[in-house]
Amino acid sequence: LNGAAPVRLSVGADGYRLARQGDFNVDLDFDALRDGANTVDLIATDADGQRAERRITVHCHRGNVWPLPYAVDWSKVRAITDAVQIVDGHWQLAADGVRILDPYYDRILAFGDRTWTDYTVTVAVTFHSYAPPLKGPPTHGVSHAAIAARFPGHFADKKQPHVQWYPLGAVAEFRLGEKLEQSSWRIFHGGSANKRASQAVEPQPRRVELGIRYRLKLRVDTLPGTAARYRVKSWKDGQPEPAAWDFETTEQRDAIPAGGALVVSHNTDVTIGNLTVKPNDTEK
Asked: Is 142 in contact with 166 (CB distance < 8 Å)?
């Protein structure tokens, strides 16, 4: 980065963010970027010692704030990165949204700002297929589509690329059971550098149908003191939104009071449809 000492990258599947042979991901710390143009030199050396190099320019514009409210209508988007940031995965624009081309561990689309606090994310999701949730990588016992709120970025653990996704505000997983009638919400919230995020699981299972578009909704509210409440609901697209929330949980000491949002596909073949984010003072 900008002529500094080279950093060795991991290459190839790692059971987490790197899915296939030859995959790599460059971690760039935002605070390490300078205003304006930054150069990133990628250097690859094969087994015969032959080198290939490519220079990429990354432009940093400090002071920009992602607008809130925010909405994405994929029919009006020419390139995915015009609307969201691709963190992981191969995504493709489709007729009704963006579809993950190579399902694997935590394929992520990010949007939002470090300054966002209390807001509601609503997104359309269609499940086409999924990997059975088994122990070990890459499913690690769960397959889902999820919404995260107040996400500060991956924690700087010792892996490259970083894989620790907490501490964070919360991530609400719409989990697909091994049998689709065993599906349910699970919310991870909080956590710290050395403590895994706490989890709350919806007690009543629900049925999910493949090929049907659903609306998923996550709301985060700051409560008195340092607490925060996270609420979720789901319903079939085209039907009236239910008045009641499906499930909620409270983080008593929310160490992450602000941050942007994510939409996550974890070992599921999904299409992510239109999405909206609204500040809670405009929401019911």
From this structure: no
Angstrom distance (rounded) from CA 284 to CA 282: 7
- The CA distance from 133 to 266, in Å, is 10
Secondary structure tally for the chain: helices H, strands E: 0, 17
For residue 284, name the pLDDT band (cuts at 50, 70, 90). low
Above 90 in pLDDT, residue 137?
Answer: no
Stretch 225-229: mean pLDDT: 91
Phi, psi of 182, rounded to the nearest 5 degrees:
-105, 20
Average pLDDT over residues 84-91: 97
Contact status, residue 180 vs residue 168, Cβ threshold 8 Å: no
Give the span between the Cα atoms of 171 and 184, in whole angstroms: 14
Looking at residue 254, its pLDDT comes to: 77
Measured CA to CA in angstroms, residue 258 lies from 77, 137, 152, 156 at distances of 27, 30, 8, 18
Measured on CA atoms in the order 116, 122, 128, 132, is the torsion positive or negative?
positive
Instruction: Return the structure tokens found at 57.
Output: 């320019």
The full set of domain ranges for the chain reads 1-64, 70-282
- Least confident among 135-139, 146-150, 155-159: 135-139
CATH of the domain spanning 70-282? 2.60.120.560
Burial (CB count within 10 angstroms: exposed 0-12, middle 13-18, buried 19+), residue 248: middle
Does residue 282 surpass a pLDDT of 80?
no
CA 78 to CA 185: how far, in whole Å? 33
Structure tokens at 90: 């191969």
Helix (H, G, I), strand (E, B) or coil at 31: helix
What's the CA gap between 125 and 275, in Å, rounded? 10
The mean pLDDT value for 130-143 works out to 91
What mean pLDDT is predicted for residues 248-268?
A: 94
